[in-house]
Fold this protein.
Amino acid sequence: MIPRKILKLILVQILITLGISGLCGLGWGRTAALSSALGGAVSAISALAYAVRSSVVKGKTAEDWLQAQYAGERFKFMATVVLIVAVAKLYPALRWLEFLLTYIATLAAYFAALLWDK
């Protein structure tokens, strides 16, 4: 089962993505908004990939739990790389500034989540 804190983080990432994409759309148009949305989507999908993989713990020891976290991080990294390459290949009109701006903003939410109590 995916922890509630991680689900909350993914929701926050989606809300950040919607907000920044909306602003990009108003300021620079549809291509900027879509590029921004794709950046946020990469971050949220990779966080979900981590959550799914790290929640599969085989055993009951602390070492088993830690191994699941490491596996989740590896899975997240690979998902991120695959998704960024796929976006770059499949969307040639990608505006990298907007894509990276939203990706970094949602990634910052990931690190800010470490400070949340519940």
The chain has one domain: 4-113. Residues 62-90 form the longest helix (29 residues). The CA atoms of residues 49 and 55 lie 10 Å apart. Helices lie at 4-28, 30-54, 62-90, 96-112.
